[in-house]
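hey can u check if this looks right to u? its 101 residues, i copy pasted from the old doc so theres a chance i mangled smth
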Amino acid sequence: MAPGSPVVADLISLGQSVWLCSLALLADASGEPAEADSLSRSGRFVDCHRYRGDILEVWGDVLVKQGHPQEALAKYDEALMYAPNWNQLKEARDAVAKQRS
């Protein structure tokens, strides 16, 4: 993933701990579990799972901006598994779903 990409820029805006955890999640999704494990335990950030909903929501937002609504819906759905009561996330997901109709 290129340092200047929209995903990287959006994730950096969330802060260092979420940034490191985001890289770990992306490494895991890319089939690099050892790298994911290394990133998720780097520094003082041990529990990346608490950020998964936030990370997946940002990933979905970026996919929408890039014109990939189907992939964005999948990320929003995955984020909802970690944050089922997040109304703003539900609204974002519903808005993308309505655009596809």
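The CA atoms of residues 9 and 73 lie 21 Å apart.
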